[in-house]
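Supplementary Methods, section 5.1.

A reviewer requested that the exact input to the structure prediction be made available. We therefore reproduce it here, unchanged from the version used in the analyses.
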Amino acid sequence: MNTFDKIYSVVKQIPKGKVASYGTVAAMAGNPRWSRVVGYALHVNPEPGKIPCHRVVTRNGEVSKAFAFGGENMQRLLLAEEGIEFLDDGRVDMKKYAWLGFTAQE
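The structure derived from this sequence is encoded token-by-token as follows.
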């Protein structure tokens, strides 16, 4: 399984109504130093309907300014549609919505 496939495998496991940070996805995919690689992989997501890249945010709960599928407003909308609420400063409350999931299998 290549690096992007490992990342996609993890992202597919993030439940509706939860988010994971780039670092969490990277660690679960096999290397905690792959945070930027996670961003690259999600930017070229081959199956946006099946791989819920909108559920990946920064460790501080910020949405991506470069969300590839409609910009940050679309990412916020998709998360809100899943019941995720935003703090007054526009970030996702990571204490409430962070998913710490499973470890990706090879």
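The first strand starts at residue 20 and ends at 21. These observations are discussed further in the main text.
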